[in-house]
Recover the amino acids of this structure.
């Protein structure tokens, strides 16, 4: 009986081994290959990195630089194949394997998708090259990231910048909450702040700038980390921040934002844009109010009492197919009071410490662009800035009026592998200090004339092949 059982067990092992060998050979025999060549329907150029997938089998491949893709180990049967690439319409086909000779090594042409992808253009470098071809370190905030951070902090742009690597928004006053930008550790006065490529604030006007810019009308924010004085003057030693405004689209836009904070603050903003034939308009307005707040109960404000109003209308005109201009102005008024919270709330306090800021800003923007040909263009820019500010603390008051201007004319020549841009600019800056008593006069007046030239040359090296 024992011998019979051993014999049956031994035969079972041999039968199992024969079955595995047969199954393996059958599986190997049923494996197939799928080869496809993918090209662009309009240009007939091969497309790299196209996905060729068998969704039901969980296998696939990508095309190489010649548009060639090969998928191996496909079992016999009917299978669905998808061919897809960003910006193109997806192809879905069904094939029976083994393939008929007519379906072997087949070429597929991809058609461009009807919906165009949103294009992001970097303007701060004064170049039309893609961000991959720009030697300057540039970062931008746009799209959902811009909207998310704007919703988190709708009253100003500190949140947009503070979470970017290498940028710090430093609070310069404990009671009034004034802040400045530090790029790569340098002081805030070495960072240039631009609006659509034009100087937004200059000189002594920059102390409250971050606190007085609401983000609702911004399309994107561009940051250059590193010296940019050649193109944007002495204020851009550490880098620059360029705030790009929204422009009118094909469809009108009307948006509002209402925010109330746990510190009893209110942010109310509205934005409108429309385009009718050759004329487009945008209007942005905001009202921001803060209540004196002392969460640590130390008797001084962590958030000051303030009230701010902003108005920024712009007009865009296409004079002809080759010439366009835009113009607008910006008005900001704010009163900000920080310090002894009991005094601010109306109680009687002996010798209270207070810091009061009163500001009025008025600035204008003008840009004219003319396209002589497909590769030659001329641009004229101008901005005027008026800033009235007074700072009061016990026994001291600083007050002054600053007026500045920036004008630039440039011409650009753009070719396939090289790009030239050159121009002239004029900076004026005048500050008059209001003094009640004799002392050192801080008033000054500057006029700076500059010229610049920039060449971007694209040189691509191909790796040596054995």
């Amino acid at each position: 009986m024992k011998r019979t059982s051993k014999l049956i067990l031994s035969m079972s092992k041999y039968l199992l081994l024969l079955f595995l060998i047969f199954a393996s050979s059958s599986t190997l025999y049923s494996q197939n290959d799928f080869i496809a060549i993918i090209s662009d329907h309009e240009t007939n150029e091969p497309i790299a990195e196209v996905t060729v997938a068998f969704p039901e089998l969980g296998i696939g491949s990508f095309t190489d630089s010649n548009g060639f893709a090969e998928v191996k180990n496909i079992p016999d049967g009917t299978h669905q194949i998808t061919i897809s690439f960003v910006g193109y319409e997806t192809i879905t086909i069904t094939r029976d394997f083994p393939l008929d000779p007519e379906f072997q090594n087949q070429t597929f042409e991809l058609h461009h998708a009807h919906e165009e992808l949103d294009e992001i253009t970097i303007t701060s470098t004064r170049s039309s090259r893609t961000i991959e071809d720009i030697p300057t370190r540039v970062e931008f905030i746009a799209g959902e990231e811009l909207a998310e951070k704007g919703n988190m902090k709708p009253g100003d742009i500190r949140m947009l910048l503070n979470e970017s690597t290498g940028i710090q928004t430093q609070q310069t006053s404990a009671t009034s909450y004034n802040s400045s930008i530090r790029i790569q550790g340098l002081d805030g006065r070495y960072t240039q702040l631009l609006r659509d490529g034009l100087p937004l604030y200059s000189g002594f006007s920059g102390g409250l700038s971050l606190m007085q810019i609401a983000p609702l009308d911004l399309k994107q924010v561009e940051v250059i980390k590193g010296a940019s004085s050649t193109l944007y003057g002495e204020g851009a030693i550490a880098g620059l921040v360029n705030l790009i405004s929204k422009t009118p689209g094909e469809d009108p836009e009307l948006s509002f934002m209402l925010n109330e904070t746990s510190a009893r603050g209110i942010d109310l903003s509205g934005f409108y844009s429309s385009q009718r034939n050759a004329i487009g308009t945008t209007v942005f307005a905001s009202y921001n109010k803060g209540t004196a707040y002392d969460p640590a109960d130390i008797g001084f404000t962590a958030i000051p009492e303030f009230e701010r109003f902003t108005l920024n209308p712009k007009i865009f005109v296409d004079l002809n197919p080759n010439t366009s201009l835009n113009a607008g102005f910006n008005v900001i008024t704010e009163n900000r009071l920080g310090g002894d919270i009991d005094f601010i709330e109306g109680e009687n306090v002996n010798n209270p410490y207070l810091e009061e800021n009163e500001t009025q800003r008025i600035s204008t923007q003008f840009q004219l662009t003319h396209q002589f040909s497909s590769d030659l263009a001329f641009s004229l820019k101008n901005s005027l800035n008026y800033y009235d500010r007074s700072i009061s603390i016990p026994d001291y008051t600083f007050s002054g009026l600053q007026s500045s201007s920036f004008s630039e004319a440039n011409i650009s020549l753009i070719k396939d592998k090289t790009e030239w841009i050159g121009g002239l600019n004029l900076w004026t800056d005048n500050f008059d200090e209001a003094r009640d008593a004799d002392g050192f006069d801080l008033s000054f007046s500057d006029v700076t004339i500059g010229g610049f030239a920039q060449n971007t040359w694209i040189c691509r090296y191909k790796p040596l092949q054995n």
Summary: The first strand starts at residue 32 and ends at 40. The two ends are 70 Å apart (CA to CA).
